[in-house]
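Need tokens for this chain, all 156 residues.
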Amino acid sequence: MKKKKLLLISSIGGHLTQLLQLEPLFKEYDYHIVTEKSEITEQMKGKHPMSFLVYGARNYPFRYIFKFSYNIIKSVFLFLKHRPDVVISTGAHTSVPMCYIAKLFGKRVIFIESFAKSTSPTISGKLIYPIADLFIVQWETMKQIYPKAVYGGSIY
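Here are the structure tokens for all 156 residues:
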């Protein structure tokens, strides 16, 4: 039987750390990870199939606009190249375009809200919540903000 294709996407740092907590599931799927390029993620490429987007810090708005636009185009390319059945994300801004692209192509979107957020939503969570097929929160208090979310407990 053919394995389902997963595309896992997140920004670097804590979002990627949370995404990698799903590693025990990787062997059950044909998976590919998309994240921002850095020295650390370059080293991880030997362990996991990975593609990279450009790191775009939002504290430089003018440059960020161009980098984010480039990442949208690259996200379309990566989606068409890998043709996933499901896109799973732990945020942040890097993952928003890929989730919308997946939805446009009729694919499932799963979003796991950040463990760091127990009383307020992330920007990426607010943007992806309306289109997510499954929206998981790691704190029960977050169900007040995201009523249709599923409480999944801590990813750690």
